[in-house]
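User: Phage XkdN-like protein. Structure?
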Amino acid sequence: MSDLQDFLMDNFEEAEPIERRVSLGGKEKIMKFKPISAATGDEIRRSCRKTTFHKGQRLVETDQDAFVAKLIIETTTVPDFKSQELQQSWGVLGAENLLKAMKTKMKDGEYATFSNIVSEVNGYDKSMNDLVEEAKN
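Assistant: Predicted structure:
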């Protein structure tokens, strides 16, 4: 049985920043990432939801592209997508517009790798089967 002490707030560790080499725009760059909290993930998901009604049924859809973009922005610490200086250098306003502008200079595979790293940093890299196997052990 688990000890209550394990669940006290002081026993939860702050996530450490992670540094990775990532190829973007044809050049390798050193980038830094920090996992977001589950609460922040919930906020991002809610902001990407759209509710529609079809034949009296309420349908809730999540815009996956918007979710991934916001996840990248919140997780990536270097470069800081919220930096005004960086936005100005790309001629855009706003973190999401900066990411869109940067994507125009990236290969599609580079962006896919970038988004996979962000997913991995946030713990989304494990499939349900992997989690079931871990639980068994």
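The helical segments are 38-47, 64-75, 84-90, 95-103, 108-121, 128-136. Residues 108-121 form the longest helix (14 residues).
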